[in-house]
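Data deposition worksheet. Section B asks for the primary sequence of the deposited chain exactly as it was used as input, without tags or linkers unless they were present during the calculation. Section C holds the resulting structure in token form. Section D is free text for depositor observations; keep each observation to a single sentence. Incomplete worksheets are returned to the depositor.
Section A, Depositor: J.P.
Section B:
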Amino acid sequence: MQNVGLELHPEKTKLVYCKDYRRQENHEMVNFDFLGYSFQPRPTKSKLTGKLFLGFDCAISISSKKRITDKMKELDIVHLSHKSIVGVALFLEPYIRGWVNYYDKFRLSALNSTFQLLRRRLVWWARKRYKRYKTNLNKANDWLKRVKEQFPTLFYQWRLGFS
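Section C:
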């Protein structure tokens, strides 16, 4: 590497065993994170047979999910002062679109827990915004379901099939 003018960082450089259905040995390092993705052994569905097998695959890393969660806290969705859910959707659209566009290349379904958290925060926004939902979580959840049925493309993640 020094011949081409590159230097390896000793803490960031490691050898990883890519364990999958063909390589079954036990090794200490079988996963690594790179550019917001976690590469590790995961159950994978065969395109030919439709059966599950162990593959070495990538998805959004735990630290990236944490970063998105922290950003949601920073945005303080529950206390947004928009008068309607449409304003909230327009405000959140660039963030959601950016997360999806970056992490949808591999296992978009791994973002499901993140979108569930966002849904819970939207329900809390409704409870703070509308008096009739303040004391009843179920009514607020039902309200958000009705909004999704009436406007299925309001939030970017709804267009992709997430709730």
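Section D:
The chain has two domains: 2-60, 62-159.
The two ends are 48 Å apart (CA to CA).
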